[in-house]
Specification:
There is one protein chain. With 54 residues, this protein is mainly alpha-helical. It has one domain. Helix 1 runs antiparallel to helix 2. The longest helix is centred in the last third of the chain and has 29 residues. The mean pLDDT is 97.
Length: 54
């Protein structure tokens, strides 16, 4: 669940950043994808850490 939330939030933030910088549709899509991957991996690390604690 944390991974999915991280990916969604990352995609939204990446799209917002690209749009704010004046990017076209492909720039926005690339920023959204990269941020979704990064935030998804961070969420995966948090999920693994929480699973190992409990």
């Amino acid at each position: 669940m944390i991974v999915i939330a991280g990916m969604v939030l990352g995609a939204l933030w990446g799209a917002f950043r690209a749009a704010r910088r004046g990017g076209n549709r492909l720039d926005i899509a690339q920023y959204a994808a990269v941020h979704a991957i990064i935030f998804g991996l961070a969420g995966l690390m948090v999920t693994i850490a929480l699973a190992r604690m409990g």
